């Protein structure tokens, strides 16, 4: 196909293309059927003529009392036409008349030629014309030829003498005129009806295609209406549970997921901007008020200290946000090695103890020995630190935090339980969301940033550690990390 | 003028209170929606500054409840929510103005002044007889003579002039000029009125503030009847 034609096809609408392909395929089949019918009819017609000619020939041979295989010379055929017709003259008058009439309507032509094609004798009906001759034919041969401007069907019978030598041919022909008109008309009808059938077929197919793909139009219309502000648009589902129904429901599900993602992103953006803008507003406002009037040195110092504290909080928040962003874009890959859990947990607890003690919270650690897991030690450290600092944050003075590490069917289970305020069951799923806080005030009185547990979840996912959480409000929360056991790189020290 | 700030972020509430008090406002602070709403409904404030995202009851709901109670007190929304939808939603909930965080303190002051602006005057200044006061610069003029007042004296005079030709009871004056931490000993008003009268008399406006015995005080545009 030419490029322009290809381009034309590529911009053609689906309904036109379906109609076109369908019409081409059907047109091809109709063409084959028409051609087959035509040739079959033609064959039947010629066979009838051939039968007629065959009959004629046998009559001639009967009349002249010779056989084509024992040819005695052309003398016996001297007056073939008269003889043949005289024979008929012996019949009853009425019958003769009928035959003559028939003869006139469908006159037959007889011609004798020698083996070189020279005419020896011919019937009177031929007058001055000569029938076509095909030399060197061994058997009886039927063919069409042009005779005096009109077509005839003729047979050429070889005449051989007793020795099998070819002496000449008997050629018998009948006009094809009426039969040709029939065949010609049939051809005309076929040629005319072919486009006449194809055009309505195309239009019909097109309208069926339009109806069949109308749900697609709805899909397109809905998708076009869709924008960030109206993500709640859905495609109306078609009545039949067919492929288009599945397409529509699949796209609807996609829209749903998109809407959720947009919602989450919007939520996150709103939360992040709140969390970042608040300390900024505090620092800015405090300094603006501070600079309006001259003040005592002590006043300046307390306000500047306050601002520094806010800025540090903001810096921590930005760090965590960036860390989360890096993990989420998978730019950071964990460096997984066989890690001994005990020293790592002890290390984190040691760091957290001053904060816990300041709040009057005790931390107890109960570890089974030789717990080794495949993990990134740095990330694991961060997971423990976040969970423990979270536990400290939401626990009150006098309570305790219990950390337990044990083996369980090829896994290492670490649990961190506090006796803090707990999380209501319906909010448990959301605690790993960025900026989620059970207390919706997002007050900074707890000092939290709302990102700790999202980071825990992300880091755990990266290392294939399962994090689960159980909580009873006002009783406490337990975080459980399920890690796969790794073979210890060192030989286990057995007690002697 | 007495304001209520409903803001859960102590840092923001803190500097707002400091800054506004320096501008001679009496300022109360509520750290959550519920206590804020209680304060707003039980006290007569001249203006509320409300954060949107606050614990217990959201700023929007606080705003709706106040409007439902029939109060027309000016409400300024102060929030980090900054999309067009948020602004429209906030204003439609009944807020008079909407300030996005982070904001300029000077802008906040200007927007507060807009809410107090006299409907029939082009500028922010207030006057009674020959006395003119400027709430922006906190200057007071009797004719062309400037009178120097302490912040409390200024706030008291501003309140009386804003409510001129109306009797201001002692309890109303306490409510609007002093903040919630002040024990409602109304005799302090008499002391400040005495100071004010002394300073005004020196400038030739001695009879501006009149006593309504047993009730309170009044400033009349036309002077003594």
Largest sheet of chain A: 5 strands, antiparallel
Q: How many structural domains of chain B?
A: 2
Helix and strand run of chain A: HHHHEEEEEHHHHEHEEHEEHEE
> Looking at the chains present, what oligomeric state does this protein adopt?
heterodimer
> In whole angstroms, how far apart are the ends of chain A?
87 Å
CATH superfamily of the largest domain in chain B: Response regulator
Q: Given the structure, what is the number of helices of chain A?
A: 11
Largest sheet of chain B: 5 strands, parallel
Q: Rg of chain B, please? A: 18 Å
CATH topology of the largest domain in chain A: Beta-Lactamase
Provide the residue-averaged pLDDT of chain A: 79
Count of domains of chain A? 3
Distance between the termini of chain B: 28 Å
Radius of gyration of chain A: 53 Å
Order of strands, main sheet of chain B, comes to: 2-1-3-4-5
The second-level CATH architecture of the largest domain in chain A is 2-Layer Sandwich
Low-confidence stretches of chain A: 85-105, 491-496
Order of helices and strands of chain B: EHEHEHEHEHEEEEHEHHEE
What are the segments of chain B in which pLDDT stays under 50 over at least 5 consecutive residues? none
